[in-house]
């Protein structure tokens, strides 16, 4: 408002002017609100940047620092009053300094961002790997004025990546040094790596072999089966294994064992496979199997011959004994040693009869070495055997202690177990000391390794043993010729134990007794 006056400067009235300033007022209020919001966002941004585990910074187009977060001071140990532009380059590792300065200068000159790694000295003097990234802030006309970025410590990740790289390089070097075909495949089953020996063995490069190269090297009659099995294993994750003939670089097919296993780790799923040349072993196994079959056939023929011979000789023996009995009844001799001669002939016939029976029993026992196993109660088997030896036990007035509580059961062939126990018990009774009644102690227990074992101790005449506790007993070998026998029992015991992976240990003192320790399994 302004006064309106006349020529004499007398008031005539008021002039009122009204201007619409709504737009300007709204703009002012909006500008005020934006300023408040900017300060709020700036405060929030500072909190975020100063609490994040990163160093944030801003630099101008000349490369001078406008801002750096407090994390930089914590990391470097520099005081807040330090000159960033002067000290920062000096903290960079000497080997990285020129590269970092060049890359940052080139990015500012071109008006683009950057991303590079370098080592910066920490407050404890140790250089740590950092990742520096920055983007330009563009102003009209699209000219960058500032660069804003962050520095992240990646030392542990880089060390881990380097360790993995070294480990992978060492593993590849090791794989290339092994004289075996080694390969890896993707989760889908396509081969992505062959070691050097594969190329040397097959005469083909990895590119020529391709993602399914090993299948194409197999004999044509085996390729479909091997490929089908491989697809099934890839789908199910089961281990792959097979024996196939694979072509060498000279065209010769050789037997290989092909194995592959799946590995899942942080890098994903992969297959690792090997092709092992076992042609020599395979052919040797075939030769050995053929020789084994031939020896087994010969052994069966020998057993049959011995069994038949012992059986066929029994009739002539019966005839000789009948003739001898008839001569003893009807013939007379004028010889003062008649009785001695007749007793010697009778004893010889008895020994021949016993030998034939032992031979037949030996063949029968050897045929039963491969009899099926079953869970057996030791005390029951021992009682059955002692029932058969009742006459000898009564005649010698023997005392037998049986202790099987510690290991009462044994998984073994019934006939083999009976043969072992019968021979040991009958020998303990047969070789009793003439001046005292037999005392036999049979104990079943567990060895320190948890395997069942049996100990049989007697107080008989004992035996003379070579050095060591595991003597070798031979067929028809006897230590006490005056005691009737054929020298077959301990040989059979040793054969049975050896065939089942066990062994027999013996300790003995002449005139005092013998202790047998039966290890059923090693």
UniProtKB/TrEMBL annotation:
Coiled coil: none annotated. Transmembrane segments: none annotated. Residues 1-33, 114-166 form the PAC domain. InterPro entries: HATPase_C_sf (IPR036890), HATPase_dom (IPR003594), His_kinase_dom (IPR005467), HisK_dim/P_dom (IPR003661), HisK_dim/P_sf (IPR036097), PAC (IPR001610), PAS (IPR000014), PAS-assoc_C (IPR000700). Residues 167-209 form the PAS domain. The keyword Kinase applies. Residues 308-522 form the Histidine kinase domain. This is histidine kinase.
């Amino acid at each position: 408002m302004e006064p309106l006056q006349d020529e004499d400067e007398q008031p005539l009235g008021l002039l009122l002017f009204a201007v619409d300033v709504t737009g300007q007022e709204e703009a002012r209020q909006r500008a005020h609100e934006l300023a408040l919001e900017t300060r709020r966002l700036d405060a929030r941004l500072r909190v975020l940047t100063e609490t994040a585990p990163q160093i944030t910074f801003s630099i101008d187009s000349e490369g001078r620092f406008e801002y750096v977060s407090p994390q930089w001071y914590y990391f470097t140990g520099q005081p807040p009053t330090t000159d960033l532009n002067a000290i920062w380059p000096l903290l960079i590792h000497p080997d990285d300094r020129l590269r970092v300065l060049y890359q940052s200068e080139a990015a500012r000159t071109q008006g683009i961002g950057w991303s590079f790694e370098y080592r910066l000295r920490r407050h404890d003097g140790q250089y740590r790997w950092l990742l520096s990234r920055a983007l330009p802030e563009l102003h009209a006309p699209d000219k960058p004025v500032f660069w804003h970025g962050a520095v992240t410590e990646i030392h542990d990740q880089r060390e881990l990546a380097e360790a993995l790289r070294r480990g992978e390089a060492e593993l590849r070097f090791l794989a290339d040094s092994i004289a075996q075909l080694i390969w890896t495949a993707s989760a889908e089953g396509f081969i992505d790596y062959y070691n050097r020996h594969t190329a040397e063995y097959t005469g083909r490069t990895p590119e020529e072999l391709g993602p399914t190269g090993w299948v194409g090297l197999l004999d044509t009659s085996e390729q479909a089966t091997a490929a089908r099995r491989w697809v099934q294993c890839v789908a199910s994750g089961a281990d792959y294994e097979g024996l196939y003939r694979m072509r060498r670089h000279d065209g010769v097919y050789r037997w290989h064992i092909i194995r592959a296993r799946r590995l899942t780790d942080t890098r994903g799923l992969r297959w690792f496979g090997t092709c092992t040349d076992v042609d020599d072993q395979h052919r040797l196994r075939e030769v050995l199997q053929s020789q084994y079959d031939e020896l087994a056939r010969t052994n069966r023929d020998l057993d049959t011959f011995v069994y038949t011979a012992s059986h066929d000789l029994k009739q002539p023996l019966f005839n000789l004994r009948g003739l001898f009995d008839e001569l003893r009844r009807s013939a007379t001799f004028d010889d003062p040693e008649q009785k001695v001669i007749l007793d010697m002939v009778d004893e010889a016939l008895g020994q021949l009869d016993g030998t034939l029976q032992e031979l037949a029993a030996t063949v029968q026992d050897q045929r039963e070495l491969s009899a099926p196993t079953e869970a057996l109660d030791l005390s029951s088997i021992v009682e059955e055997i002692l029932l058969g030896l009742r006459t000898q036990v009564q005649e010698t007035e023997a005392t037998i202690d049986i202790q099987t509580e510690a290991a009462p059961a044994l998984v073994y062939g019934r006939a083999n177990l009976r043969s072992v126990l019968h021979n040991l018990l009958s020998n303990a009774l047969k070789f009793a000391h003439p001046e005292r009644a037999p005392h036999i102690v049979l104990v079943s227990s567990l060895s320190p390794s948890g395997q069942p074992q049996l100990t049989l101790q007697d107080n008989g005449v004992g035996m003379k043993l070579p050095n060591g506790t595991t003597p070798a007993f031979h067929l028809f070998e006897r230590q006490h010729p005056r005691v009737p026998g054929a020298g077959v029992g301990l040989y059979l015991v040793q054969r049975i134990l050896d065939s089942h992976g066990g062994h027999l240990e013996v300790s003995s003192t002449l005139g005092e007794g013998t202790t047998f320790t039966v290890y059923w399994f090693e």
